[in-house]
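Could you join me in thinking about how sequence relates to backbone shape in a protein? We need material for that, and I hope you will provide a protein of your own picking. Once you have written the record down, we can walk along the chain together:

…
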Amino acid sequence: MPTALVAFNWSTTSNRYDRVARFVDRLFSQIEKLQEPGFDPKWKSINLAASIPGLVRFPAAQKWLDVHAPATQASR
C-alpha cells in the first residue's frame, strides 16, 4: 500500500515552516542510511521524487530535490 508523508501548508515566514523544512532536509539527506541493512526493507522502496496527483509538494522538499536530484541520478 502506498504511503505519503504530508505537511500543512505553513506560511514560508512562519517558524513552523522552518521546522518542517529542517525535518525535510534532514530526512532527505539521510534517506540512504535508512535504506542500508539493519533497517526495515520498505525504506528501499522510497521514491522522494514521486508525485501525487492533486497534491503540491512542500516547497522546501522541491527545492531539496532540485538541488540534489542531478547528483542522485548521476550516482545510479
Q: What stands out?
A: Residues 72-76 have pLDDT under 50 and may be disordered. Residues 15-34 form the longest helix (20 residues). Helices lie at 15-34, 59-74.
